[in-house]
Design a protein that fits this description.
76 residues; mainly alpha
């Protein structure tokens, strides 16, 4: 969330709201031991991965983003 440039427009503002929502869902998942809340956040993050990959392609000096088939898990 802190890396977003909110002066860049509506997309950054929408991402901030989405990230805040995911953060709250992760807090709920932790406090209430709610696996469904954690799964919801994982699904949301996976849905954003292609957009992040495309953004990285447009700025090749950035660090690589994991491939779609890469193992990403919020379970600990």
């Amino acid at each position: 969330m802190s890396g977003l440039n909110l002066e860049s427009g509506e997309i950054a503002e929408n991402l901030l709201r989405l990230y805040e929502y995911m953060y709250q869902r992760l807090v709920t998942a932790n406090v209430k031991r709610d696996a469904a809340a954690a799964q919801e956040v994982e699904d949301l993050l996976r849905s954003l991965l292609p957009a992040w990959q495309e953004a990285v392609k447009r700025q090749p000096e950035r660090a690589p983003v994991p491939e779609i088939g890469a193992s990403v898990s919020l379970r600990g």
